[in-house]
C-alpha cells in the first residue's frame, strides 16, 4: 500500500520542483491570466520535453518526436498499485469517453507511464491497460540499464521511491511510492498544464472527472483564443 505521509511529501516535492522550474523559465501560470481552473495549473509558456527513449505496450520505441501532432494526458504509477492507479485510470477512461461523446476537443490520447519497469514489461502493460481502455498507450523504460528514460522523468519532475518491503509476509518484492499528478502535453510535445488531485482527509487523493473535463475544455478554449 502507498504510505500516506510519503505520498503527500512526493506530491509537494513535485509541485515545488515544477513551480521552481517555472519561475526559472519565467513561466506564467493560471493566476496571472483570467482563466479559472478547478484542479489544473496552466503554463502559458509551455516547457519542452528533453529527448528520451521509452517503449510502449506494443514493444514499439517511443521518443518525444512520436508525441508531436496530438494532445496527450499522462498519468503515471505501476500495475501492482492497489488503489490510486486503477482508480485514476478508470476516471481517465470515463473522462476520455465523455470527451468523445461531447465531440469537443476529442483529439486527446491517454498515456500511462510505469515507474516499475522490473515488473511492468510491455506485455504486462498491454494486459493491464486493456482492462480500462484499449486506446491508452502504456510507456515504460527500454530493457537494460541505460538512462534513456531519465530525460522524460526529469522534464516532468516525475518522482517516485522504490524501497524494501518491511512486512516479511508480503508477497511483493518491494514497495513503490509515487506522486499523483496528471500532465497535459500539447502537440509540440511540451508540458502545457498540470492537474492536481482533490485531497480527502484520511483517504486517497483522487480526480473529479467533471472538474477534469471542465478544466481541459477551458484550457483548450483559452489557448485557441490566445
Question: Treating each run of at least 4 consecutive H or I residues as one helix, how many helices?
Answer: 5
Radius of gyration: 17 Å
Class of secondary structure makeup: alpha+beta
Domain module tally: 1
User: What characterizes the major β-sheet?
Assistant: 8 strands, mixed
* Shape verdict: globular
**Low-pLDDT residue spans:** 1-9, 18-31
Which architecture per CATH? 3-Layer(aba) Sandwich
- Just give the CATH class: Alpha Beta
> Can you list the strand order of the major beta sheet?
1-10-9-4-5-6-2-3
Number of strands: 12
Integer average pLDDT:
83
Order of helices and strands: HEEEEHEHEHEEEEEEH
Alpha carbon gap, first and last residue? 43 Å
Q: Could you name the CATH homologous superfamily?
A: Glutaredoxin
Strand content: 25-35%
CATH topology: Glutaredoxin
Helix content: 25-40%
Pfam families: SCO1-SenC
Protein name: SCO family protein
Organism: Alkalimonas collagenimarina
Family: Belongs to the SCO1/2 family.
How would you describe this protein?
This protein has 5 helices and 12 strands. It has an 8-stranded mixed sheet with strand order 1-10-9-4-5-6-2-3, with helices on one face. A two-stranded antiparallel sheet has the order 7-8. The chain has a two-stranded antiparallel ribbon with strand order 11-12. The longest helix is centred in the first third of the chain and has 21 residues, at 4-24. α2 (84-102) packs across α5. The chain is an alpha+beta fold. The chain has one domain: Glutaredoxin (3-Layer(aba) Sandwich), CATH 3.40.30.10.
Amino acid at each position: 500500500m502507498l504510505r500516506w505521509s510519503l505520498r503527500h511529501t512526493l506530491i509537494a516535492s513535485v509541485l515545488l520542483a515544477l513551480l521552481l522550474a517555472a519561475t526559472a523559465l519565467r513561466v506564467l501560470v493560471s493566476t496571472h491570466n483570467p482563466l479559472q481552473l478547478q484542479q489544473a495549473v496552466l503554463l502559458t509558456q509551455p516547457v519542452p520535453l528533453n529527448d528520451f527513449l521509452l517503449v510502449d505496450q506494443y514493444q514499439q520505441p517511443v521518443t518525444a518526436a512520436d508525441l508531436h501532432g496530438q494532445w496527450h494526458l499522462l498519468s503515471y504509477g505501476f500495475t501492482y498499485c492497489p488503489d490510486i492507479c486503477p482508480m485514476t485510470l478508470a476516471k481517465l477512461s470515463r473522462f476520455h469517453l465523455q470527451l468523445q461523446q461531447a465531440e469537443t476537443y476529442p483529439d486527446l490520447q491517454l498515456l500511462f507511464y510505469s515507474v516499475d519497469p522490473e515488473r511492468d514489461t510491455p506485455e504486462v502493460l498491454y494486459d493491464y491497460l486493456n482492462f480500462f481502455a484499449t486506446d491508452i498507450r502504456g510507456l515504460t523504460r527500454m530493457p537494460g540499464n541505460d538512462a534513456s528514460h531519465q530525460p522524460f522523468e526529469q522534464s516532468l519532475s516525475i518522482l517516485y521511491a522504490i524501497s524494501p518491503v518491511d512486512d516479511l509476509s508480503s508477497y511483493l518484492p518491494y514497495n513503490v511510492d509515487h506522486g499523483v499528478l496528471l500532465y497535459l502535453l500539447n502537440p509540440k510535445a511540451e508540458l502545457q498544464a498540470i492537474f492536481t488531485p482533490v485531497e480527502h482527509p484520511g483517504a486517497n487523493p483522487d480526480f473529479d472527472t467533471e472538474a477534469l473535463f471542465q478544466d481541459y475544455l477551458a484550457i483548450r478554449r483559452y489557448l485557441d483564443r490566445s
